[in-house]
Amino acid sequence: MSKSVGISSCQRVQIPVGKGVLVGALWNRQRIGSCTPYLAKAICRDQAQARFPYLQSDGRDYWLNFTVCP
Q1: Cα separation of 55 and 70, whole Å?
Q2: What's the average model confidence in pLDDT over 49-55?
Q3: DSSP secondary-structure letter at 34?
């Protein structure tokens, strides 16, 4: 993770009990070429806007692989 392409906008969302899938921010990349893989770190913000990572059951940060295609 040597190069960040930015931070998505954060929106307060109430997560219902038992919800397994959430829709995240939309990413638009203006480039010509093939699909590009990215790695996202899931975080939440508290009321003071402090950032906290979502954690896996083993205590490690939760990361999400995703692909953006032109």
Answers
A1: 31
A2: 86
A3: S
DSSP-assigned states of every residue in 40-61: EE-EEE-TT--EEE-B-TTSPB
Cβ burial of 20 (10 Å; 0-12, 13-18, 19+) is exposed
For the full predicted model, state whether its pTM sits above 0.70: no
Mean pLDDT on 39-60: 86
59 pLDDT above the threshold of 70: yes
- Cα–Cα distances (Å) from 66 to 10, 12, 14, 51, 54, in that order, read 18, 22, 23, 21, 17
How many angstroms separate the CA atoms of 43 and 21, rounded? 15
- Alpha carbon distance 37, 10 (integer Å): 22
